Amino acid sequence: MSKMRMNGEDFFIELGALLLTVFWTIWLPPRGRIIALIVINLILSFVMYADLIYYRYFQDLITVPVLMQMNQVDSLGESINTLLSWNDIVFFVDWIVIVPFLVYVIWKGRGDLRRANEQAGIKSAPLWRKTVARIIISVAVFMLGSNLVFTNVEEAKRTWAQGIFVGAWWNLSIYNVTGEIGFHGFDIYRYAKQNWFDTSNVSAEQASESKAWIAERGEDRKELESDALFGAYKGSNVLMIQMEAFQNFMIGQSIGGEEITPNMNKLIKESAYFSEFYHQTAQGRTSDADFAANCSMQPVGNGSVFIQFANHDFECMPQTLKQEGYTANVFHAYEGGFWNRNTMYNNMEYDKFYSRKHFTLDEKVGWSLGDKSFFRQSLDVISDQKQPFYSFLITLSSHHPYTLQEDVQTLNVGELDGTIMGDYLQATHYVDAAIGELVERMKAEGLWDNTILLMYGDHDNSIKDMKLFETFLGKSLSEVEQMMIMKQVPLIVHLPRGEHAGEYTNVGGQIDITPTVMHLLGISTADKYMIGMPLITEQPVAGHKVVLRNGYWTDGNVFFMPSADGIPENGKCWNIADNAVGDINGCLSGIEEASTELAMSDQIIENDLIADYKEQDATEARAGSTDEDANTLASAGTK
Length: 639
Hints:
Layout: H1 8-22, H2 30-58, H3 64-67, H4 73-76, H5 78-81, H6 95-119, H7 127-158, H8 164-167, H9 171-197, H10 204-223, E1 237-243, E2 254-255, E3 258-259, H11 262-268, E4 272-274, E5 277-278, H12 285-295, H13 305-308, H14 317-323, E6 327-331, H15 341-347, E7 352-354, E8 364-365, E9 368-369, H16 371-382, E10 389-394, H17 420-444, E11 451-457, H18 466-473, H19 479-487, E12 491-494, E13 502-504, E14 508-509, H20 513-521, E15 546-547, E16 553-554, E17 558-561, E18 572-575, E19 580-582, H21 588-606, H22 609-638
Parallel strand pairs: 1-10, 1-11, 4-13, 5-14, 6-7, 6-10
Antiparallel strand pairs: 2-3, 4-12, 8-9, 11-12, 15-16, 16-17, 17-18, 18-19
Helix pairs in contact: 1-7, 1-9, 2-6, 10-21, 16-17
């Protein structure tokens, strides 16, 4: 947010928004007006500071859906402490004066004000005159505020910010137009419109359009069912690991003469390793990765699907595999209510969710149970499961702020010692060691040769100082290289007998994970409401694109970065091979496809359209069955 400098228009928009916030206080008596203005000052200071802290961690702003999950803030603990700065006291310096003054006004101000007026001989004006004056002044303030805000916002919408409120893919773009107060006003309006006023946000025509669009994805996957790898691992167990804040830039790297991820490097040699794989998370972070990977839909732009839409219908991996006779369990050594997992996992139809209460805390590392013990205790359960099984494990030891106890810090990180990057490398090195123990345990338990082991990173590490990345990598990074580093996470798929191993450079994203698993198991997803495509096929899927939640996208050849004003032509179309900005025309068609994917996914999720689609499909199936029965009876009668 420090990069968003205020210009003249910004000043007037913010001033106008402030006037719209306080105009109603003119209706109050003097003492009430003073109290109201002080309270507004305190609230706005707190909101601005909360936005700053949230931005430092998420590079985004607080929205109403985020506030619905604020019960999680207490659980962030030390992570939040690292985001605070002594310079932040500037937000609250005025509190030193106004808070005591507020107390004074509340407890003693009324009597003192009345006595002061009596001593000065001030007579109160007639009530009707005061009422008329307050109405006139408040209307004038309201009109001035409205003019300052909406005149400037409309000018921005007409020129450099065209369409920015329609797509609304990026909160910071809206903030650039509306300012701090205006953004939260728009966010409240947006939330109320979506959740209270528009009981149905889509027409029948729009719902039909969304269904046809996602059905085309199903048809594309159906065409791949003739692929030689479709069903090549039918009946195999599936063990999938979501690795906390695990990014791709560390894979194969060393520091201080020691490999950072030696076990993964070894595993990659006998696995399918996707080096151009991207996380697609937004404000929901870990929960977004979980949702995208298991349900093959784009996360929503604001808040988390796990929080806002946990009761909606989706077609997720655990549900689909259970229909095929699999047992499905999820393991995460943290509070079951965090990210509303208890509710969401029940909706996803897992057989059981093993949360922190199911684990013995015998190895405290970072936030909770260390990943070594987490894997060990999880495997105790998995080994006894009925096969085939689907087990989904979510790690935690490499969670921000990466401060592990000294006895598990075994890397020599050199000049990065004492930095958050050095701590991050220590944490990921520990997780890699835990992965190594897991692999050895799977081999000992007889699971290695009949299980698909899949691992991927959930999101970036929230380290925003790119100089730390450049120090680690030993080179300067261009804008596109910085963005790709922050968005790329590893995807490693070990298949039985180490088949189809090698580096895969075709691009992929988290929404492609479930279709990939289903393809290998020979389970058709042609009729499933999913967006992704399988990544492990005889030949890579031509023209596949990865769409990121903020409107960025890539096909492996170009990487598109939208501009803050939302105008496609003002974005950057990077040629990856040349590491240079190319002709924007090379990205324009992809921009439309990316926008459509995000819009269709949002429309389906927010309006619970999959439930409607399933009902329509069931009705059509019953009608078809009735017609078939009638034809059979007619044929029998003819005979």
